[in-house]
Each structure stands twice: as structure tokens, then as C-alpha cells.
## 1
Amino acid sequence: MKKMGLWLVVGAVVLMGAYIRLAPSDPGRWHVAPVGDVDRNDRGGVLRLVETGPDGLERLDAIARTSPRTRVLTGSVEEGVITYVTRTPVIGFPDYTTVQQDGDTLRIHGRLRFGRSDFGVNRGRVDGWLALLQP
């Protein structure tokens, strides 16, 4: 009976991991222009506004594309908005970062998909990208 319980737990963990890795990312839900006028740190994400000049999105895109486990979900520099998906190394939890060029201001919204707290992961990634963006 204990072995059966153990196998049920293992099976549930495997199924949850598969769901986290394979669940589709709906651009209609995640590719939304960031809203806000001040920097903000939340339990599940971060919002940053940075004066970069009109080429900020192009420069940040080059940085984001070289980040580990990060890919473009949708959007482009030409469109003025890009949403990236970055996955954690082991389990593959997806985090979404939407970046919008608004004149000379770059608006960046990084947030988690699963759970209630990202333990500062999005803040660390976004602030790291911004540190690389500075001249």
C-alpha cells in the first residue's frame, strides 16, 4: 500500500511537471503592453520604466535574446512591443516579460505564470537586463 502511494505521488509530480513544460503560452493573454507610470515590485513580478532613447527596445532585444532559456513569444522591434518567455532551469516554470518602446521610455513588465511569488526572479532578470543596457 505504501508503494502504491509513493507511485501515485511520483506520477502526480511527473504530470504536473509535464503540464508546466507543455502548457501553451497564449499570446493574447501575455502579449499586453505594460501599464504604469512608476517602477513597481510585486510578489509575482516587476514593472520598470527607463529612459533609453528611441532605440531602447532594439538594444534590450539583443540582450534578452542572449539570455539563457529565453525566447520570443511574439512581437518585434518594428511592432514596438515584444513578449519573451524565460523558463527556470530545472522544472521549466515560465515567466513572461513584455517590453514596450513608448517614445524615449522603455516599459518592462516581468511576471510569473504559476504560483503567487516569483521570489524576486523577475526583478533580478529585468534589473540585470537593464544593467547591461546602460552605456
Note: The radius of gyration is 17 Å.
## 2
Amino acid sequence: MPERSNAGIIQVGEERWIPGSQRADGSFRKERKVRPGFVPLEDVERYSNSRIEASKAASLPPGAKKPAIPGAKKKEVEKPKPSAASVKNQTPPAADQTDEKKIKALKKKLRQITELEQKLIKGEKLNEEQHDKVKKGKSLREELEKLSIE
């Protein structure tokens, strides 16, 4: 039986042929002889590095973990124990940090409110949410004063 290449070329002894085929419109192509030494692109062997081929075969998609082997024990990673000096240097999250965050958030809201107030002065119309925000301005200023005093 004749061998068939990736490009569909049939080799019979020393001769190589492209077999005849039927076109989409129903007509037939003649079989054609292939010159000696011609290698179509489909049959050209590409260079491949053995390390790259090995990594392609064993690779998993990004982010995927290796499948666990049933019955295998997991290795426990020993965490270094903290020294006494490092324990002293660590401070629990203080209330000061939360106050700073609140102050920063209040200042941002007040900036937005002043922008809305300036729009009102210029005569631009605001929607209901923007009017509600402007009304909250006084209470936000008082709250900011209380936090900054403490």
C-alpha cells in the first residue's frame, strides 16, 4: 500500500503523486506528478528543542496546581518562630489608624460637597442625590472636627 504524507502526496516506489480530487463545484482535478526533492510546507519537519518539548508535555495551565497523589502525605512546612525582639516591635492595629482612615474619607467627602456647592453657586442644577450630599455637609464637618480634636 502506498504511503501518504501530511500534504496528501502518495509515494509509489521512486515516484510521488498528488492524487486527483473533486472540487467544490463538482469538477475533478487531475492527479499530478511531484518533482523529485520537492517537500511541501506541511511535510517540512520543524526544529524542536528537547527541553521545550519536555516542558510542553508536562506543563499545566497557568495557576493550576499539580494533582495530589492519592495516599501521599503532605509535607508540613516549618515556620520560623518569631524572636522576642520581633514580637516587641509588632504593634496591633491601633485605633489611630482607623481614625486616620475616617478623617481621610471625611475630607474626600467634604471636597466633593464643596465642588457641588460651587456648582450650585454658578447656577447649575443638581440631582436629588447631589442635594442630599450637600445637606450632609454640616454634620460631616462637625464629625471631622471631633475626630481631629481626639
Note: The chain has a mean pLDDT of 80.
